[in-house]
Amino acid sequence: WCCVAVLAVGAITLSSAAFAQSYTTVVTITAPAKAPPDGGELQIQVGVSNVKNIGGFQFVLTVDSKVLSPVAVTKGEFLGSSGREVFCPEPTVDSDSVRLECVTLRDQPAGADGSGTLAIVTLKPEAAGASDLALSHVRLLEPDGTEIPAKTVDGKLTVTTGGSSKKWLFIGGAAAGAVLVVAAGGAFAIRRRGNAPAPPEA
User: Fold this and answer.
1) Which residue, 5, 145, 149, 194, shows the most beta carbons closer than 10 Å to its own?
2) pTM reported for the whole predicted model
3) What is the pLDDT along the chain (202 residues), one digit of tens a residue?
């Protein structure tokens, strides 16, 4: 599948705010506001809203490998934003999922408060179709290892094909070929966090 372009809208971000009001701490998926100029890989963000004193996290993000292939996952800036040193073991990138664990070291300063990006996941469109972006094994930890209760919000991406002409409109311009769309209707599901071993202690 050549000439793949990406369309991403702010629907997930807007919905996350509403969920955060009801469920306090929420782990969400967001996408960029416009397509990459070369129609290539898409970077999505795994973020957290309304958290206090976070010192570590882990998650697994699963996709449909027939539609999307995981390329990489890297830590975001939020975990270390209070000045704590961040340590992340080598992430796991499989054909249909990525796994990342990160902790912070030493007693001081306190963990980060507020909202921000935990990780950035790079995905490559492979074929037309729809793929859930499913979060599981999500755990948020305070610096002393105490677990922070949280809910997760899944997303959905749909790859559709068109001709080679520039007829696909998206925020910021038009793109040729296939379009990867963040679905706004029915794309969200509240999930309880999965159970998984805690990240290694500092």
Assistant:
1) 5
2) 0.72
3) 344 444 333 333 333 444 444 448 999 998 765 555 555 788 899 999 999 999 999 999 999 999 889 999 999 999 999 999 999 999 999 999 999 999 999 989 999 999 999 999 999 888 888 889 999 999 999 999 999 999 999 988 877 665 432 222 222 222 223 344 443 333 333 333 343 444 444 4
**What is the spatial distance between Cα 137 and Cα 63, in angstroms, rounded to a whole number?**
14
Is it true that the peptide bond before 199 is cis, omega within 30 degrees of 0?
no
Per-residue H/E/C for the chain = CCCEEEECCCHHHHHHHHHHHHHCCEEEEECCCCCCCCCCCEEEEEEEEEEEEECEEEEEEECCCCCEEEEEEEECCCCCCCCCEEECCCCEECCCEEEEEEEEECCCCCCEEEEEEEEEEEEEECCCEEEEEEEEEEEEECCCCCEECCEEECEEEEEECCCCCEEEEECCEEEECEEEEECCCCCCCEEECCCCCCCCCC
Report the DSSP beta bridge partners of residue 178.
4
Tokens found for residue 115: 């909202």
Beta carbons of 15 and 153 less than 8 angstroms apart: yes
